[in-house]
């Protein structure tokens, strides 16, 4: 495969939702590189996490959702390039930062002693609680019991209440027994901690030695941190102060002030601990606790110039999202009426978006809007400009939504089931339109669908999602002709295009696992007709099939028994050719 530029790099992404005091894990450790100019389909059953995955990088997660882990790096040089004005206010900020950083840098001189003080404190804490070894042992035992409980609970959920009453009763009794064991273990640990606390409080010799050692360290720390800092540290702080200002300079005064303060506090903590602030990586991490770090590049008398790495998982400010959502990453949803305002004319809706994002006059925007309407295939655009959405057909409305999405020339166009609500012939036209316009506008298509049939028409690559994880990633050809995961087999087998006359269409039995519970083993195991013993015990890794093809199934482990894919998808190539008449 030719080398392509990575546009969006997702690593170990986890997205969770708070739901009435419980936590639902919708995305569980997804890593995926999305390339410039490609078309990637995200497929899976309802609830697999397709929409949540794309909403995480389009800044559209519901308010109870949050990214709990991972990064989403968006490589866009235009957005990364940062310029802030150097006026008298800017200099006031920078000079004040520099002064504080120089002051805090003294703490770096005593960081080794500071860490020793922390160690001593933690020694005292450990003595008052369990030892590290005891704690590990207790956690291990508790974890094993909880895993066993989850397994038993999951197994109970799969039992048939009509036919397997005895098994259900036995599982319920086992769960009750495990609950009691968990409680007893927790109580015993609590008791042990209480005893340790008492013992330390009454150990006069230890208390005395602790005080003496701490006093000595404190004295040493005071001496070390009263010395002068070096010229090279001062020079580094000058750049750091500018980086702090570059990183917060885009915000309004009040926020700029607050974020700047936050960054200085983070840097102080890092200095205290002796973090190497000359290292790019460490610096990124320290800044990342508050906002993106903008790396200093150069300056002149009027402006500071820097560049930053954009991690969409960390964007919180709505103004920052305003620079990305709609402008760089646009979405087309299933129902065009959710994107269009029913009481505003089509022309006005397109022009207002163009004016907002491109900052042009109304006359100019009108010209561009008409051009876009023609591009997406609205006949007689001038005459239809002042019509309302209800005067357009469903397919035409979707074309308008596409025109709006493309009017800002986004880098990524997310298509969330954009043709599901349309009839088959219109579906094909809209897919063709999205593909054709890609050649002209060079956007990346991220196409969400539960229908693998659509995938064959639009995608270069496919990521199959199950219970919040990518379980197979491949090129379209590999996925259709050499699928490796039993879930992909099941999805392909249930393609309506494969149904033969007088035969029943295949459907996947059972339901996906609850995303509220920890999933043990392979999440597809309870529904998998090819389930191995290991599937119920351990989560499979991603196995590499080819450079472009990966699947998360124990069937690919070299020692696994050889299993053939189901009969119905053996000659899927021929059947699809016939179904699509190609
Ligand atoms: N705001 C929310 N609060 C709680 N749970 C949510 C929220 N949004 C999504 N979820 C849950 O996250 C999981 C993934 O949902 P998502 O909408 O991404 O599924 P999907 O694959 O796009 O399915 P569909 O085709 O039905 O849209 C589901 O279990 C869903 O219930």
From TrEMBL:
Predominant location: membrane
Domain of life: Bacteria
Coiled coil: 163-227
BP terms from Gene Ontology: peptide transport
Keyword Membrane assigned: yes
Domain ABC transporter per the UniProt entry, residue ranges: 10-492
Segments passing through the bilayer: none
Species annotation: Fusicatenibacter faecihominis
Name of the molecule in the record: ATP-binding cassette domain-containing protein
Family stated for the protein in its record: Belongs to the ABC transporter superfamily.
GO CC annotation, single: plasma membrane
Cross-referenced SUPFAM superfamilies: P-loop containing nucleoside triphosphate hydrolases
Entries under SMART domains matching the protein: AAA (SM00382)
A GO MF term: ATP binding
Keywords: ATP-binding, Cell membrane, Coiled coil, Membrane, Nucleotide-binding, Transport
Cross-referenced PROSITE patterns: ABC_TRANSPORTER_1 (PS00211), ABC_TRANSPORTER_2 (PS50893)
């Amino acid at each position: 495969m030719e080398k392509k530029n990575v546009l969006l790099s997702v690593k170990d992404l986890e997205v969770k939702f708070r739901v009435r005091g419980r936590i639902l894990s919708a995305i569980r450790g997804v890593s995926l590189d999305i390339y410039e100019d490609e078309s990637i389909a995200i497929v899976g059953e309802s609830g697999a996490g397709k929409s949540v995955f794309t909403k995480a990088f389009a800044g559209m997660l519901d308010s109870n959702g949050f990214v709990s882990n991972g990064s989403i790096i968006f490589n866009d040089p235009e957005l990364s390039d940062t310029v802030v004005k150097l006026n008298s206010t800017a200099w006031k900020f920078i000079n004040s930062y520099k002064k504080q950083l120089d002051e805090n840098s003294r703490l770096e001189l005593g960081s080794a002693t500071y860490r020793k003080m922390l160690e001593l404190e933690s020694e005292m804490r450990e003595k008052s609680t369990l030892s590290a070894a005891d704690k590990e042992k207790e956690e291990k035992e508790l974890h094993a019991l909880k895993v066993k409980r989850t397994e038993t609970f999951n197994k109970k959920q799969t039992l048939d209440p009509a036919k397997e009453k005895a098994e259900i009763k036995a599982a319920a009794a086992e769960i009750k027994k495990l609950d009691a064991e968990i409680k007893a273990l927790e109580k015993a640990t609590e008791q042990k901690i209480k005893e340790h606390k008492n013992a330390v409080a009454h150990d006069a010799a230890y208390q005395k030695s602790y005080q003496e050692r701490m006093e000595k360290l404190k004295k040493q720390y005071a001496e070390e941190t009263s010395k002068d800092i070096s010229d090279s540290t001062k020079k580094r702080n000058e750049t750091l102060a500018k980086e702090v200002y570059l990183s917060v300079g885009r915000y309004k005064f009040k926020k700029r002030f607050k974020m700047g303060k936050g960054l200085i506090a983070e840097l102080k903590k890092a200095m205290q601990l002796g973090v190497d602030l000359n290292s790019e990586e460490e610096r990124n991490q320290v800044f990342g606790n508050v906002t993106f770090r903008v790396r200093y590049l150069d300056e002149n008398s009027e402006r500071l110039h820097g560049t930053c790495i954009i991690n969409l998982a960390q964007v919180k400010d709505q103004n920052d999202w305003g620079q990305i959502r709609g402008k760089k990453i646009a979405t087309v949803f299933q129902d065009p009426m959710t994107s269009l305002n029913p009481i505003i004319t089509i022309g006005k809706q397109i022009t207002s978006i163009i004016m907002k994002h491109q900052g042009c006059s109304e006359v100019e925007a009108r010209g561009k809007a008409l051009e876009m309407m023609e591009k997406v295939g609205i006949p007689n655009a001038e005459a239809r400009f002042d019509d309302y959405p209800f005067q357009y057909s469903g397919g035409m409305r979707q074309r308008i939504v596409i025109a709006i999405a493309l009017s800002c020339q986004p880098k990524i166009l997310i298509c969330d089931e954009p043709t599901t609500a349309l009839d088959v012939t219109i579906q094909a036209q809209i897919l063709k339109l999205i593909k054709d316009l890609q050649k002209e506008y060079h956007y990346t298509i991220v196409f969400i669908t539960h229908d693998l049939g659509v995938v064959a028409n639009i995608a270069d690559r496919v990521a199959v999602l199950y219970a919040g994880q990518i379980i197979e990633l491949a090129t379209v050809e590999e996925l259709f002709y050499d699928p490796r995961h039993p879930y992909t087999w099941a999805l392909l087998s249930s393609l309506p295009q494969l149904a033969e006359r007088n035969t029943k269409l295949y459907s996947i039995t059972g339901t996906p696992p609850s995303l509220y519970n920890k999933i043990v083993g392979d999440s597809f195991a309870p529904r998998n007709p090819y389930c191995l013993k290991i599937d119920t015990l351990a989560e499979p890794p991603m196995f590499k099939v080819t450079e472009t093809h990966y699947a998360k199934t124990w069937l690919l482990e070299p020692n696994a028994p050889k299993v053939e894919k189901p009969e119905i998808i053996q000659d899927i190539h021929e059947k699809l050719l016939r179904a699509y008449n190609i």
